Amino acid sequence: MKILNAGQIRALDAYTIKNEPISSADLMERASQAFVNWFINCFDVSKSVSIFCGKGNNGGDGLAIARLLHAKGFQVRVFVIEYTDKESDDFKQNLERLAGNLQVQSIYESHAMPELHSDQIIIDALLGSGLSRPVAGLLGDVIEHVNGATGIIISIDIASGLYVDKPNEKSDTIVKPDHTVTFQLPKLAFMMPQNAEFTGDWHVVDIGLDKRFIEETLSPYYYTDKPAGEALTKKRGKFSHKGTFGHALILAGRYGKMGAAVLSSRACLRSGAGLLTVHVPECGYEILQISLPEAMLSIDPNQRNITELPELSSYSAIGIGPGIGQEPLTVRVLDELLEQISTPLIVDADGLNILSKHPDLIDKLPEKTILSPHPKEFQRLAGDSANEFERLELARNFAKKHNVVIILKGAYTAVILTNGDVHFNSTGNAGMATGGSGDVLTGILTALLAQKYTPEDAAIFGVYQHGLAGDRAAERKTKTAMIASDIIENLGW
Ligand SMILES: NC(=O)C1=CN([C@@H]2O[C@H](COP(=O)(O)OP(=O)(O)OC[C@H]3O[C@@H](n4cnc5c(N)ncnc54)[C@H](O)[C@@H]3O)[C@@H](O)[C@H]2O)[C@@H](O)CC1
Ligand SMILES: [K+]
């Protein structure tokens, strides 16, 4: 799925109206109907509904939704906020259509707010994608009032006060919904962890905007939903043998951190690599042989740390980083690896910390190396940023400049390709914020590279499958109880 900016969404609306063709009032009706379909799927008519409307098209949606829900038998109260005399045409039209059906209450002043009970559902139709400045005055007071309510809050299209495609100030007044029901496409703002409380659970409803226009509109932002994720799966042919799926090499672990080697290696085997060799310090010999009999070992002469690079010629992809530490001899191994490597590479964890401390090594990274930092590792690697929008830009520039694929880990993990395109992931959950979860991803990615997925596809697909396995693990164990091994046990496609 593509993600468009506010201007592109406006153009998409206009294009659909002109070329379908459909009147803007009918498009609003279709959008409102799509919202109502979602709504009646979730709530029954025993619920009463309070709808707060602004005077633009988002408010128009609110009025149309009020009429449609009333017709379905819901008890509906409608409030129009009188913060301006300017009304959009479709707002006016829907206000007229409401007359006779439902009484509209106007709110003129901050001290005259309606009481909101906890069993009432509040629908936020104050401002949508047309937001152009911070909310203030009466509208701001209404938002504060709504946020103070204990009932369920649902925002139409986007929480009022939240920008579609740029950062808000910390002091901005924004609705904090439990749900956002958004039209046609997810919005960039939803991908930013800083906006979590301003999106709630968000749901995309199809309102029939022009698909070809969406396809042809250039945007660097994509959302890896189920169809996009599944489309990347490579089928295993009937006549394939273990050589077909490559020979992966993972360099991981040191004394006290051998678990990282076990986790990444097991995940690699569970992700379809034909063969796996793990290079570990001597102290890892028994641990690996016993816990992972399917893996072959390359034993470093050093007892505690990785200090020597194994011979590389037989491997089809290499993963380095989990638990390796940053000892000078280990740094030298990474340096030598970068000198010699001619296969796809993924660098994670301590591998990334080494790169941060030795920036000269960044220039040696082979093109399309995958780097998979969590926010702190990325900050060490690329520097500070004022907010998550800025961090994303920093990552896009870094990926383009160094010709690498970056996996910025977090909620909606962003996979950033060498051309600066960003693919936000749809799977995963907060239960995955647990030690070893990143090591698992390294193993998955190494396996995919060994199976000749391109680095771009490996990153997008690997992150997607990692999250999916995490979702299955959470379902079986709960988010609280799940650990990284559960992610591995739930891999499979
Ligand atoms: N255009 C279309 O065809 C469709 C639009 N739809 C709805 O229309 C919304 C966008 O509508 P609009 O473009 O009318 O914009 P909004 O309804 O978001 O905003 C209305 C007006 O408020 C003003 N405004 C902006 N920021 C403000 C602030 N902080 N305080 C006070 N006033 C402010 C702007 O001048 C804007 O025109 C979407 O989010 C969606 O809900 C849907 O009905 C689907 C179809
Ligand atoms: K809204």
TrEMBL record:
CDD domains per record: YXKO-related
Residues reported in the UniProt entry to bind K(+): N58, D124, S160
One of the protein's GO biological processes: metabolite repair
Enzyme Commission number(s) from the entry: 4.2.1.136, 5.1.99.6
Domain YjeF C-terminal: from-to ranges: 225-493
Cofactor binding mode and count: Binds 1 potassium ion per subunit.
GO molecular function list: ADP-dependent NAD(P)H-hydrate dehydratase activity; ATP binding; metal ion binding; NAD(P)HX epimerase activity
A matching Pfam family: Carb_kinase
Binding site residues for AMP: K409, G410, A411, Y412, T413, G438
Reactions mediated catalytically: (6S)-NADHX + ADP = AMP + phosphate + NADH + H(+); (6R)-NADHX = (6S)-NADHX; (6R)-NADPHX = (6S)-NADPHX; (6S)-NADPHX + ADP = AMP + phosphate + NADPH + H(+)
Positions annotated to bind (6S)-NADPHX: 57-61, 128-134, 157, 260, 323, 374, 439
Cofactor field: Mg(2+); K(+)
Residues of the YjeF N-terminal domain: 9-215
Keyword Transmembrane: no
Keywords assigned by UniProt, alphabetized: ATP-binding, Isomerase, Lyase, Metal-binding, Multifunctional enzyme, NAD, NADP, Nucleotide-binding, Potassium
Family: In the N-terminal section; belongs to the NnrE/AIBP family.
Record's function text: Catalyzes the epimerization of the S- and R-forms of NAD(P)HX, a damaged form of NAD(P)H that is a result of enzymatic or heat-dependent hydration. This is a prerequisite for the S-specific NAD(P)H-hydrate dehydratase to allow the repair of both epimers of NAD(P)HX. Catalyzes the dehydration of the S-form of NAD(P)HX at the expense of ADP, which is converted to AMP. Together with NAD(P)HX epimerase, which catalyzes the epimerization of the S- and R-forms, the enzyme allows the repair of both epimers of NAD(P)HX, a damaged form of NAD(P)H that is a result of enzymatic or heat-dependent hydration.
Subunit structure of this chain's protein: Homotetramer.
Name of the protein described by the UniProt record: Bifunctional NAD(P)H-hydrate repair enzyme
Organism listed in the record: Dyadobacter koreensis
Gene that encodes the chain: nnrD
